Amino acid sequence: MRLCDICGSEEAIYTNYVTGASLCANCLMNSIRRRAWSVMKRELLPGDKVMVAHSGGKDSSLALLLTKEFSDEVRELDLKVISVTLDEGTLYRRSSIELARKLAERLRVRHLTIQMRDILGFSLEDLRLAIPKGWKRNACTYCGVLRRQILNAVAREIGATVLVTGHNLDDLIQTSIMNLVRGDANALVKTMRHERKYEEGLVPRVRPLKYVYEREIASLVVALGIPAHLGKCPLAQGMRIGIRREIDFIEDSNPGSKLRAFLFLENLSSKMKVDVSLRRCSLCGEPTTSDICKACQLRGEAFRFMGIEDKNIRLDSLKSLKDSAFQS
Ligand SMILES: [Zn+2]
Ligand SMILES: [Zn+2]
């Protein structure tokens, strides 16, 4: 048994391959908490109504736990926290919803499950079955874009002032490299900036785990037995997979590369002047950088595959939550 290099008394469960230090679950938690709290201290504001996008996976589960802990500890901020799980209607999601509910209950956080089908008129499973063979996009692409739009709409409709997500360092460096190779400077700046920008209709996002490696999160969640799904979505496909493989390869031979590259891009994008002001999508009214938002473009395709007339997102099911979601 190897002992923790920090406290010297507990069994080490994680080795930091940049510093070579081995950490026990407690000391790893302290290290992750320090990074997450520094983000929350900088980006959360007094009186914030925080909606945590809680899929039940390891990242968002840890994000919920740390956000709740933060709101309990830093009482003067008077934060209100709610956990929301979007059910895309896939088999994969079914088990993680149960875990999400369990964790929220354990933390005494109100938990809501929102059905993708209620908002869009179809589930991801309906869509997956309807996509024609050989089509250029797969269900994963639709899911990512539509989920993002729905979560923003839900946050706005229930009166959240900020949306917390579980994105970790690995996710964000992959996204930034994808933005780089697409030449999309606007998207890069939007991913990186940490000042709160108020754009009508767009709920600001806070990512407490942005400086935390995915493998740190996985080790901690397992060691502490936090109720969370550890698997990866079986539908994941596309450009991200290749980029992830390349970045992991670089990190393996140059430990610390991900963090250094991320901090560099963060610093660079804070100096970049790009137009990230938003317009309203002419179809759904959601915030977008073009005339018709990406979600509406993809939703249009989805409806076509399923042979239904294009319809807007339906937010009626959220009306009843408008004033009650953050009431304790
Ligand atoms: Zn320790
Ligand atoms: Zn739209």
Characterize the largest beta sheet: strand count, sense, and whether it forms a barrel.
5 strands, parallel
Structural class: alpha/beta
* Low-pLDDT windows of residues: none
Shape descriptor: globular
Our Rg estimate from Cα atoms comes to 20 Å
CATH-level-4 superfamily name: HUPs
- Just give the CATH class: Alpha Beta
Description:
- With 328 residues, the protein is of the alpha/beta class.
- The protein has a single domain (29-274), classed as HUPs (Rossmann fold, 3-Layer(aba) Sandwich), CATH 3.40.50.
- 48% of the residues lie in helices and 10% in strands.
- The chain is built from twelve helices and nine strands.
- The protein has helices at residues 25-43, 58-73, 91-107, 116-120, 124-130, 139-157, 169-182, 185-192, 214-224, 239-253, 257-271, 294-306; strands at 14-15, 22-23, 49-53, 80-87, 110-115, 162-164, 205-206, 279-280, 287-288.
- The protein has a five-stranded parallel β-sheet with strand order 5-4-3-6-7, with helices on both faces. Strands 1-2 form a two-stranded antiparallel ribbon. Strands 8-9 form a two-stranded antiparallel ribbon.
- Strand 3 (49-53), helix 2 and strand 4 (80-87) form a beta-alpha-beta unit.
- The protein binds zinc ion (2 copies).
- One zinc ion binds at residues 281, 283-284, 286, 292-293, 295-296.
- It holds the Pfam family ATP_bind_3.
- This is tRNA(Ile)-lysidine synthase MesJ.
- One of its GO terms (cellular component) is cytosolic tRNA wobble base thiouridylase complex.
- Keywords: Metal-binding, Transferase, Zinc.
